[in-house]
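Lecture notes, part 5. Sequence design as translation. It can be helpful to think of inverse folding as translation between two languages: the language of shapes and the language of residues. The source text, in structure tokens, appears below.
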């Protein structure tokens, strides 16, 4: 059995949605249409360059949808999902935990830098993502 077969479809969806949600949180922290396009390309490039199970999960299928569309509620969905994703990987694919954390952090950093550098609002959101992933802010 390969590592990616150890994750159920639901677990794969949590891992993917959490990563894309983190990107959305940082992108939405300082919204702008042109910025959003640049940020989307930045994040997709990071996800595509990931390796192993993380790459497989993040690049397979379409873009996941969050269960809420309210910007105020998205943070309350995504941050626990990030913690849950790390726990899923820790239990089922422990060798992929650091890969996942590194990929998500690189993606949110690139999103913040994609349009005029990381501002204070984006930096605050990146710190929240780092904390949710179990990393120092």
């Amino acid at each position: 059995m390969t590592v990616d077969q150890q994750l159920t479809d639901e677990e794969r969806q949590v891992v993917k949605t959490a990563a894309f949600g983190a990107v959305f949180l940082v992108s939405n922290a300082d919204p702008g249409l042109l910025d959003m396009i640049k940020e989307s390309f930045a994040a997709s490039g990071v996800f595509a360059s990931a390796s192993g199970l993380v790459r497989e999960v993040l690049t397979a299928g379409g873009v996941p949808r969050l269960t809420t569309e309210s910007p105020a509620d998205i943070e309350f969905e995504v941050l626990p999902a990030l913690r849950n994703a790390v726990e899923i990987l820790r239990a089922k694919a422990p060798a992929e935990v650091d890969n996942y954390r590194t990929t998500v952090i690189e993606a949110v950093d690139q999103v913040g830098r994609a349009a005029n550098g990381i501002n204070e609002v984006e930096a605050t959101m990146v710190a929240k993502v780092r904390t949710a992933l179990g990393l120092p802010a």
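The translated text above is only one of many valid answers, since several sequences can fold into similar shapes. Helices lie at 3-6, 9-29, 33-49, 52-59, 71-92, 97-114, 120-132.
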